[in-house]
Amino acid sequence: MSSFTGTEYHAKGKLLLTGEYFVLDGAMALALPTRLGQHFKITPRRPDELTWQSYDADGTCWFEATLAIPSLELVSGEHTETAQRLIEVLEQAFSLSSITLNELAGCAIATQLDFSRHWGLGSSSTLISFVAHLAQVDPYVLLAKTFGGSGYDLACALAKGPIIYQNQSAEPVAFQPAFADQLYFVYLGKKQNSREGIQRYRALGEKVKASLTAINQLTLDVAVCDSLKAFERLMLQHEEIVSSMLELPRAQDLYFNDYWGVVKSLGAWGGDFVLVTSERDSTVAKAYFQEKGFEVILSYKEMIL
User: Fold this and answer.
1) Which domains does the chain have, with CATH numbers?
2) I want to staple 157 with a disulfide (CB 3.0 to 4.6 A). Which of 11, 58, 60, 84 is the partner?
3) Nearest to residue 228, comparing CAs of 295, 170, 179?
């Protein structure tokens, strides 16, 4: 029986409140681990094979594959992009490790998301965190060899609360806004490809350096912000910098130009979630977004650890 049998692991999801894209160039970013994450469990199965099943938040199995060990050839399951990505992550992880792929023989790995896999809260980063844990390798090295990115999502996976992230270093920060009840996360349902967003940002070249100091200061200011008005002002400043740099319209201008609060994009711009502020009653705020067809609206306390 594999030494991995009986292993259970939980990695948290992530949201980046400040510093999106700029974090790739060493900017400070305020990162928020979410209450929602992904659970992993290993039980015994057939010898010489690895069975992998991934379940969405509603309990449906959205991915299933059986791999031969140690070759990682697909025994059953479709040759999808997901299957190829999984094989790549396992190959890279164990090529970096003193532990061999033979340890995966006879394992059945089941993964369970707390959030819809379409939400962009970290199904990939939680996978990297888990596989790096199994192989006992540096998750940031594994990320660089597979999905790429700054690594803030990996820092969130095991964080116990909000962090300021910079260059693969995470410092806990006491970001517990007194106005948390006036903050919400709205799912736009327009999933963006993070890799494409990164490529667009990289194409800007040297132009981004002029904004790094401003982004760093905004991150520090947001972390200690003590009023909703000040928070909204900082969010608008951040939006204006990113919008100008990427030459993309703000989500508020695109979808919510009559909204009374502030709408801030998160992560890959124009995609998954936006943060919104509201001084009005929560039922009023939620009704506004629902009337526009956006049904997933989570409070700050529902979403953030």
Assistant:
1) 8-172 (3.30.230.10), 180-303 (3.30.70.890)
2) 11
3) 179
